[in-house]
């Protein structure tokens, strides 16, 4: 059996992208990304999603390698973001008889993005498509993470085509399923993908998870990253925790610093936390860190410490950017502590306190505010902050 045959009649025809620098022109791709597409081959053939248009010819090559000159009868569109939909027009030119299957919102977008309004079939929740020997049914999963998103289920193979849900960054270096590769390569990339792309939509993800659990899939074919089979339990559990914004014990210290004074506060707090026995501590300099990695860690851990200098009477811009990324993703349930500095008039500490209130997070202790340079006088309040944080972490 070829490695591309995921289950009998289900073939992988996706591609790797190790060239694009930033996903959505925003998020770094140090390990690349895969755009996964799948064929379901019965008496008739359905393609589930396409790939980014720059890789469209590879998709067509992969399809031909699997089914030769047989036509593709249906294109099922689970998600319209162009990393999956932008090869639709090319595909229609090669397979002019193809029927495009999507829900009402999908088909509106097919028209809006690609000017296609013929050869389409609208489906609703629970509708089925008989391919002859294999069946597909369609289940809406709106706002994971676009309004039209849906998942497609093949009951005969207990296989779920889940769109972006359960996806990861990272190309598929050889193996396609989680038993053909080392799944440990992908957990951090799943967290990073979720935090950056899906993170705002915890509620809709919870609703989608309930539908997925009811189907009890044995194979999950996402649009990015490995096909899940052996690790489905862990994948669903991770998604459940991330979409409830449940952090695991650990501290992220994210700071901005112009000349190293505020940085010394961050380092001091990290050292004091370690002295208090905290073992999971991640420190990010926001002027140098990859924002997607900071967001990943904010989603991963239950405690966040943010600090920065006052700049133009406001927050230092990289600190403000982090807070905006967090608040736009509606992250809940974090313990928070903060620190800051100023030269002649303070604002950072006050503004970080206001942020805590807006987020309705737990302010664990008093902040530390430093005027001008780092000095021994700042060490004691930093130690007090770390001690109180460590005490709070031991309480739960
Ligand atoms: Fe992979 Fe939302 O696109």
Give a quick rundown of the structure.
The protein is an alpha/beta fold and 396 residues long.
**CATH fourth-tier homologous superfamily of the largest domain:** Ribonuclease Z/Hydroxyacylglutathione hydrolase-like
Could you tell me the number of beta strands? Answer: 23
The number of helices is: 12
Largest sheet: 7 strands, mixed
Task: Provide the helix percentage.
Answer: 25-40%
Radius of gyration: 24 Å
**Can you tell me the CATH class of the largest domain?**
Alpha Beta
How do the strands and helices of this protein lay out in sequence?
Blueprint: E1 5-7, E2 10-12, E3 15-17, E4 22-23, E5 27-28, E6 33-35, E7 38-41, E8 45-48, H1 56-67, E9 74-76, H2 82-85, H3 88-94, E10 99-102, H4 104-114, E11 120-122, E12 128-130, E13 135-140, E14 150-154, E15 159-163, H5 187-198, H6 202-215, E16 219-222, H7 232-243, E17 248-255, H8 261-275, E18 281-285, H9 291-300, E19 301-311, E20 314-315, H10 317-328, E21 335-342, H11 348-359, E22 362-363, E23 368-371, H12 376-395
Parallel strand pairs: 8-9, 9-10, 10-11, 15-16, 17-18, 17-19, 19-21, 21-22, 21-23
Antiparallel strand pairs: 1-2, 2-7, 3-6, 4-5, 7-8, 12-13, 13-14, 14-15, 19-20
Helix pairs in contact: 5-9, 6-7, 8-12
The site of MU-OXO-diiron has 8 residues, from helix 2.
């Amino acid at each position: 059996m070829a490695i591309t045959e995921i289950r009998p009649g289900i073939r992988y025809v996706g591609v790797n992208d190790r060239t694009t620098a930033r996903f959505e022109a925003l998020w770094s791709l140090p390990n690349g990304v895969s755009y996964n597409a799948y064929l379901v081959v019965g008496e008739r053939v359905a393609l589930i999603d396409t790939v980014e248009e720059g890789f469209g010819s590879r998709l067509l090559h992969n399809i031909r390698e699997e089914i030769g000159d047989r036509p593709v009868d249906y294109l099922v569109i689970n998600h319209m973001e162009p990393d999956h939909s932008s090869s639709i027009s090319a595909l229609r030119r090669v397979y002019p008889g193809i029927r495009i299957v999507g829900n009402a919102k999908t088909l509106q977008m097919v028209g809006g993005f690609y000017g296609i309004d013929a050869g389409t079939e609208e489906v609703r929740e629970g509708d089925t498509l008989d391919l002859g020997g294999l069946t597909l049914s369609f289940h809406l999963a709106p706002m994971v993470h676009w309004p039209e998103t849906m998942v497609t289920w093949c009951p005969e193979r207990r296989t779920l085509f889940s769109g972006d849900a359960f996806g990861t960054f990272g190309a598929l270096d050889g193996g396609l399923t989680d038993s053909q590769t080392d799944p440990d390569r992908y957990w951090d990339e799943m967290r990073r993908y979720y935090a950056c792309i899906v993170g705002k939509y915890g509620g809709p993800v919870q609703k989608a998870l309930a539908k997925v659990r009811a189907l009890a899939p044995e194979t999950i074919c996402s649009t990015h990253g490995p096909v899940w089979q052996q690790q489905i339990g862990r994948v669903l559990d991770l998604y459940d925790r991330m979409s409830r914004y449940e952090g695991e014990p650990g501290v992220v210290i994210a700071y901005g610093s112009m000349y190293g004074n505020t940085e010394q506060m961050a380092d001091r707090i990290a050292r004091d936390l370690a002295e208090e026995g905290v073992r999971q501590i991640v420190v990010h300099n926001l002027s140098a860190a990859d924002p997607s990695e900071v967001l990943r860690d904010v989603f991963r851990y239950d405690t966040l410490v943010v600090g920065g200098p006052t700049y133009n009477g406001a927050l230092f811009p990289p600190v403000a950017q982090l807070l905006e990324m967090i608040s736009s993703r509606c992250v809940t349930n974090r313990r928070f502590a903060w620190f800051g500095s100023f030269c002649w008039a303070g604002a950072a500490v006050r503004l970080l306190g206001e942020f805590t209130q807006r987020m309705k997070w737990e302010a664990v202790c008093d902040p530390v505010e430093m005027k001008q340079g780092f000095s021994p006088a700042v060490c004691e309040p930093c130690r007090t902050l770390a001690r109180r944080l460590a005490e709070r972490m031991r309480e739960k």
